Input
Amino acid sequence: MIEDSPVHASALRALAALSPIGKGTDAPATEAWLELWPALERDGFTLPAVSADLGGTGGELPDELAVIHACATMAVRCPLPETAVAGALLAAAGHAVPPGPLTLVALAGCTGLALAGGLLDGMATGVPWAARVGHALLPLPQGLTLVTLEGCDIQPGHNLAGEPRDSVRFHRHRPVALLTHFPAERLLLRAALMRSVQICAAAEQALKLAIDYTTTRKQFGKPLASFQAVQHQIAGAASKLAAARILLDAAYDALAGGDARREIAAARINACLAGADCASVAHQVHGAMGYAWEYDLHRHTSAIQAWRAEFGPLAYWAERLGAEATAAPSGDLWQFITS
Amino acid sequence: MLQIAFPHRNADLDAFGGFRERVRSFLQSDPAAREPRADCWSQFDAAFSRRLAAEGFLGLTWPMRYGGGERSSLERFILLEELLAAGAPVGAHWISERQVGPLLLRYGTEAQRAEFLPRIARAELFFCIGLSEPDSGSDLASLRTSAVSTPEGWRVRGRKVWTSNAHRNQYMVLLCRTDPQSQRHAGLSQLIVDMASPGLTLRPIPNMSGEHEFNEVTFDDVLVPHDRVVGTIGNGWEQVTSELAFERSGPERFMSSFILMRHLAKTAHALPAEKLGLLTARLLGLRALSVSVAAMLNDGKLPNLEAALVKELGSRLEQDVGEVLLDGVESAPDPGSADTMNRLIAQTLLHAPSYSIRGGAREILRGIIARGLGLR
Output
């Protein structure tokens, strides 16, 4: 269980100062994380699953899951998840991890890029935190590519959760490293799993708020939670979340063993399904209150919607899983499921 | 997490790969595999059950002295999911093996175990379960069928409905009221009733597919010997609910339509990969949840809440498979069609309404989950 991990508990404590939850208009400034970053780095939260010789703290994959989950639970907006995953990818490719925050670019964000003669040209889009991080990992057709973002022309943008999603223009830009031996697809898989963890964490907080609110708010002389119409909506959403949650563990277990394509696709699809339902139900049972800026629900639900769109939407992963299921050598779906 | 925790335990199954291969090779050579069925665990085929029994596949987890195999419940999970994945007709023994066996092992007398368990494991006799009544469905605790103690035994009066396969089974485990003054969950008891008893009459209740699975069972002063009481008089409700985690969490709660997905993938019917992928992802999630509950049961826990969640989520998938295929592929659903896909879709559409009712209606399960979440 993610919450049983001591890393999860310590990450929650370390991130508490950055969390806007329960603070209303006193929420920390959006750039407050920059000040705390050196402490997060020092205490091992930024590269939880990277070995010490490559710049990390020598933790295991479940520690990475715990840190990403804790960050989304607290609705803390900073490039901690991206750094953890980019660092793990670099380490897996045998490359030293540069200091400072890192970011990852989605496949869809690289369509305007060309790498020729060892130089990168064009525009990367939807780059998380580009203006605030030193390095980015790109899934280029030639392989996983590490670039510095210094000196690039960066146009700011945002996702629905208010997180920076910038456009970066490269002009005859020489990558720090082109890791041709390392399949760039792994970036896509790891990043999709990262967003799935975040969605599940946010969905859980949305449901917790829904449960707290409906058990205390009274209408028609009794708590909203005493109405079956309310109970059943929340029960249905919680059921979907349970399926998404267990698949996060399945995916991290499979990652430890090597090939996690099937598990990550399943985790991503179920996280999208559960996230959508939990957000929708949580808003419905909150009535107008959930729609108010000063109430915390939107911090979780807007994040869910933002993350559903990033690193391949549900349809992409469903199409991919369906194609892989039928392309199995035996052509047998059951073999695919049980192998 | 929200007080409902499912540790990921799929790896627990890895130790039994050899057993899985044994089940697969049995299924590949068995004639029943030639005609796969949707909702195959409602398909009564005593001959197939006897072939399974001959392989030692019934009562797999029970003690050897009762004809069992003393294997782990995870091996039983593998056996069940392989049978369901093949669409094999396992309905004859399903209830006896899933519920009656464990019930007798837990609450039965030594004489009852010795008399019934080996014969269930050999597929020589099959049990039905007498629960619902004309006025007691989801509100099972309102049941009124009564048993009165007399010197020669218990005298049963009343009526049960929706009793699956009562016309093909030799015995029933009956839940009835043994204390006429009692209310609700108190004063209920379980009796083993010989279906050939005088005073017991059956009336078929064909289901919407036209098949005769259900029955109305009327008890008119049916005599049940004292030694046929299961467990303790007055403890019936607790005994029934102690089996719910076994009944609600197994692979049959999300795989009733899997044979459609498997057949579809094999025959390259024109369903967009995205739709198959979506269903496959949901199945993978449910399978992980179901394995998790099996592992909890193997560890001696009683995960009733978790089991209710598996069944609630699983019946939705089972129903959606029929809908997605109906909307997604060219078909002419017909139970009598020569085309397998047409047959499977028809079977599913005609059986699917029961999936979210049998073994605990969706509304009841959601109520249980809501209680687990602290909403009630």
Q: What stands out?
A: The domain at 10-126 of chain B is CATH 1.10.540.10 (Butyryl-Coa Dehydrogenase, subunit A; domain 1).
